[in-house]
Structures are given as structure tokens and as C-alpha cells.
Amino acid sequence: VPAAFMALARSVVLHRDAERFALLYTVLLRLRRQPGAIEDRADPLVRRLEGFAREVRKDIHKMRAFLGFREVDEDGAPRFVAWFEPEHHIVRANAGFFLDRFASMHWSILTPELSLHWDGETLAEGPGATKRDAP
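-> C-alpha cells emitted (135 positions)
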């Protein structure tokens, strides 16, 4: 499989469109017959997948740029909690960014799909939340 396909697929699988896996599989089968097909920017299917990848990258950027933590008291210690509603399945893909950036803080990121919780040592995943759950 060409590296360009793998790079594209890493983003496309995070898209919310229900057809994403079938579309990737269609391109994968096409690549068996036409190894350079992934480079065909005029191909409607490749363009559609590139659009998915672009939307995912935009959503990742929005989460990184606009997520706002609020400090809450948790048993006498500060915890920083944020609410975010991603358009795509990007929360896990973004976890490393927040671990690196806020490693010294105890934080939680709440989303409708899942929640991430960092205690300074361990990243834990929890169930989705509602906006009412955030401060």
C-alpha cells in the first residue's frame, strides 16, 4: 500500500461519515490495479477522501486552539475541566497533544462521545458526558 494511502487513511478513519471505511476499501482495491491512483487529484473518490481528511484536520485544530479549561476543586486540589463537541472521532487522536502541553495539570476533557482524564501519571478514558457535566 502506498504511504500516501496510509497517511490519508489515518485521517479518514477519524471522520464521522458512516461510509468512510467502505470508501477507503474501494480505493484500496483500486490501488491493487492502479498503484498510482491515490495521486490522481481529479478522481472524485480520492477528492472526497481528501475532503474528509481536511475536515478531520480542521476539527483537530479547533480542539487544540479553542478548548478552554476551567479550574474546579477536587477534594482540595485543583482539576481543570473542559467541554468540547467534536465533529469527528478526534478525541483519542488529540490526547497526546494535551498530555504534552498540560502534563503538570490534572485535567479532564468531556465530550459527548467519551471523556479523557489525566491525573499527572495515568490517562484514563471514561464515558461520554453532557454539557451540563462541565463547569
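Residues 44-66 form the longest helix (23 residues).
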